[in-house]
Write a structure and sequence with these properties.
It is built from 3 helices and 2 strands, in the order βαβαα. It is mainly α. The radius of gyration is 17 Å and the shape is elongated.
């Protein structure tokens, strides 16, 4: 699975784009390990996100927090709908 940079709420920008009103004197730039890889045109895998989070990359940490939030919401919905005796989560 590969991810494309979509930006997360709270990201810091110096930038061109809708946020800057298209000011050509402004350059949009994300900070951090993942942003550096994307600026070089390199794909980002989930393993890259995990590695960046371990190194303290704020965007990677927020990505995990966001994923954990939605996983929790999905599991809560599943619990309410089906009332399972047990839920097992695993990974590698």
């Amino acid at each position: 699975m590969h991810l494309r940079w979509a930006g997360l709420p709270g990201d810091r920008f110096l930038g061109v784009g809708p946020e800057s009103g298209g000011d050509p004197g402004c350059t949009r730039r994300h900070e951090g390990i993942l942003a550096t890889r994307l600026e070089k045109g390199q794909p980002i895998s989930t393993a890259d996100v995990a590695s960046a989070a371990r190194q303290g990359d704020a965007a990677a940490i927020r990505a995990f927090e966001r994923g954990a939030f939605f996983l929790g919401a999905a599991l809560a919905s599943y619990l309410q709908l089906f009332s399972p005796q047990l839920i097992v989560l695993s990974g590698g």
